[in-house]
Amino acid sequence: MTSLNAHANELSSVDALAPIFKASGDPLRLEILRVLRRDTFGVLELSQLFGMRQSGMSHHLKVMHKAGLLEPQREGNAIFYRRPLHLDSEKLTDQTIRQVFETVDKVALPAHLQEKIEAIRTQRADQSQAFFARHAEQFREQQELIAAFDLYAGPVADLLRKRAAKQSWQTTLEIGPGEGAFLKVLSELSGHVVALDNSRDMLAKATRTCIDERLNNVDLIEGVTDTLLARGDAFDLVIANMVLHHVPSPADIFLDAAALMNSGGCFVISELCSHDQDWAKENCGDLWLGFEPEELTAWAAEAGLSAGEQLFIGLRNGFQVQVREFWKTTGRS
């Protein structure tokens, strides 16, 4: 009887594996998996990337979703697709899916696909930048529709001060400082602070904050993380407060932060947890409706960063903020 049960379980496992191999046994679908390594794309965006009709792309995505290779992510009224966040290391099917991902990731993306991906990211970045250019004067008012600054800045400051008792940060980078409200905290904790923003209007406000607060060890730079990577800058601490939901490719922020950090460096973020309040896109310029904690952890791990302390803050309006820290324990990338 035991032998029969074992045989039945073996057949059941084989039956469960078949859809995975069938769904992944197509060059186009493997390319889709490849472009979704760190990015999340909608059906229309994937159709643009691969030059095919939406109906055809939807069919491929349906097959891959059914096999467990993809999962949908609702962003308001739109559906985006990503690789599954939760894969059980003990389940044979999930082990197989992970092996498919690891294998396909060894193949470099063709140049033409990479160019199309960059074009989509540029469209998203332009959309975000245009919003902040239009609403720079109402920045604080717009942001506090979701979360008042002190509700997340306070816990982040407390975490940094606790770490500063044992950790010395000579150089600090804040990505997306907004009006510069957090720069005073960083100026007190670090010898030299760089504030990086791609919005000239927001940098003008941050400059005024630095003048008013007499923050003489802060440099404000217009640009993106690539700007600092090209200069060869290196930091002990990198901060991103409520920034990820405004950037075209959030996963890349982790890669860039890791590349910009010295060994032993720390990346601290505050960010919205995943939510369904679509009005935030129109009213606050959000590109993404928050993120699952596992999503951030996975992006950090791929960037070579180890997760540290985490704190979750529930807000009265239904939003939840996560404060996370990630550490770089190896040499600079």
Automatic annotation (TrEMBL):
Pfam families tied to this protein: HTH_20 (PF12840), Methyltransf_23 (PF13489)
Organism of provenance: Marinobacter salinus
Family annotation (Gene3D superfamilies): Vaccinia Virus protein VP39, Winged helix-like DNA-binding domain superfamily/Winged helix DNA-binding domain
Listed name of the protein: ArsR family transcriptional regulator
GO MF term list: DNA-binding transcription factor activity
Alphabetical list of SUPFAM superfamilies matching this protein: S-adenosyl-L-methionine-dependent methyltransferases (SSF53335), Winged helix' DNA-binding domain (SSF46785)
NCBIfam families given in the database record: HTH_metalloreg (NF033788)
Domain HTH arsR-type: 9-104
CDD domains: AdoMet_MTases, HTH_ARSR
InterPro entries on file: ArsR-like_HTH (IPR011991), HTH_ArsR_DNA-bd_dom (IPR001845), SAM-dependent_MTases_sf (IPR029063), WH-like_DNA-bd_sf (IPR036388), WH_DNA-bd_sf (IPR036390)
Organism ancestry: Bacteria, Pseudomonadati, Pseudomonadota, Gammaproteobacteria, Pseudomonadales
